Amino acid sequence: MEMFFYLVFGGLGALVPALELSKNNKDRITTSAAFTSFKNNYLVVYCLMMAGDWLQGPYVYYLYSTYGYGKGEIGQLFIAGFGSSMLFGTIVGSLADEQGRKRACVTYCITYILSCITKHSPQYKILMIGRVLGGIATSLLFSAFESWLVAEHNKRGFDQQWLSLTFSKAIFLGNGLIAIVAGLLGNLLVDTVALGPVAPFDAAACFLAIGMAIILSSWTENYGDSSESKDLLTQFKGAAVAIASDEKIALLGAIQSLFEGSMYTFVFLWTPALSPNDEEIPHGFIFATFMLASMLGSSLASRLMARPSSRVESYMQIVFVVSSVSLLLPIVTNFLVAPSNVKGGSISFSGCIQLLGFCTFEGCVGIFWPSIMKMRSQYIPEEARSTIMNFFRIPLNIFVCIVLYNVDAFPITVMFGMCSIFLFVASILQRRLLAIADKPSMLLTLVIF
């Protein structure tokens, strides 16, 4: 592996703990032994679930390419995943409430394991089935587990403040440390041990099976209230009323869709961008580097949000502009650096520049997640929170599907340019949100038909 990858990874690896250690010590929340046991049990399961998810991410595109599929065919496979998530994401929440959250979590494990098994087949139809299963699993991952945790936490009578402790630990471990370890493990299996690009999917299936065993043996079942079970039409009506009644909610949803749409498109584009001539790049190691950059961003976000003088609505304008510029680098390097026509070999000079830009973008992603959560908590009414959030995932997935469907029709630089424009538009919308944030909100009344 080239020294450049080690330098970038090592630099970020030094910055993350340095930033964390430089923070002031915060007061610790005193909890009970029962809660600690409950929290640790959930964190173990959540980390196993996220390990199963993170192991697959860096190698999906690479695996399909080794089977001989081109960018257009791979784009269709990705569309199947996002389309499946879009379709089932609107209904899995209510299904989990009706059929049981524990059962939904087990279904996630089974569905994702089956998706991993399909990766052994080079047949396009089998891979397509795997993407559909993966989309269903993704919807369950981001709904069923959180629903089970909240309901079980309240059922056991734990202090409501303690719930934030579980969430913060889950994000730090599952979305940070586990992602890095998964990236390094995947790189070990594929490059060092040379087990092939399907090995990370087999490892993911093992982690998911272990997690499912823990769920079956230690979790109890819980259900949603009957009052929460609403059909899709009712959910969309409530979301439409909220959006039409408050410009801040509409702006927030548009900002979220623009940024996440660009982010998911980037997930598809970074591999061909860094290896346009089939250069040898360590996918898992690069993925781990991206996760380090994201952790650095989240650490910076927590510091920014802790300062009374620093407003989320203000600094996010800068974040969106920086992220927009970072995704312009593939276009800039294409004009300023002579492209290489040599197949294979090591990463090019332009690839090194782009990698630094992509790390900057991932840092912005790390700032985005906790910041958008804080803004959602401020502007989206609690009684309509899940409805509105699900409503905005529909245009998000439609946007990604349209981009991927046309990915073979445009050069990769055009795709990055489009994402950069969307991010710049997000900064403009963020400025508008800041301008109206201090204005009195209209009285929002949701009428449930």
Task: Describe the fold and architecture.
By secondary structure, the chain is an all-alpha fold. The chain has two domains: 40-220, MFS general substrate transporter like domains (Growth Hormone, Chain: A); 232-440, MFS general substrate transporter like domains (Growth Hormone, Chain: A), CATH 1.20.1250.20. The chain has helices spanning 3-21, 33-54, 60-66, 71-89, 92-99, 101-118, 124-141, 144-155, 160-192, 199-218, 232-245, 247-274, 283-306, 312-326, 329-336, 349-379, 385-405, 412-437. It is globular and about 65 Å long. It is found in: Cell membrane. Keywords: Cell membrane, Ion transport, Membrane, Transmembrane, Transmembrane helix, Transport. InterPro entries: MFS_trans_sf, MOT2/MFSD5. It comes from Tripterygium wilfordii.
Q: What's the main sheet like?
A: none
CATH topology of the largest domain: Growth Hormone, Chain: A
DSSP helix fraction: over 70%
In total, the number of strands is 0
H and E string: HHHHHHHHHHHHHHHHHH
CATH architecture classification name of the largest domain: Up-down Bundle
Radius of gyration: 22 Å
Silhouette: globular
* Total of helices: 18
CATH superfamily of the largest domain: MFS general substrate transporter like domains
Identify the CATH class of the largest domain: Mainly Alpha
Class inferred from helices and paired strands: mainly alpha
Low-confidence stretches: 441-449
Strand content: under 5%
Task: Please report the distance between the alpha carbons of the first and last residues.
Answer: 61 Å
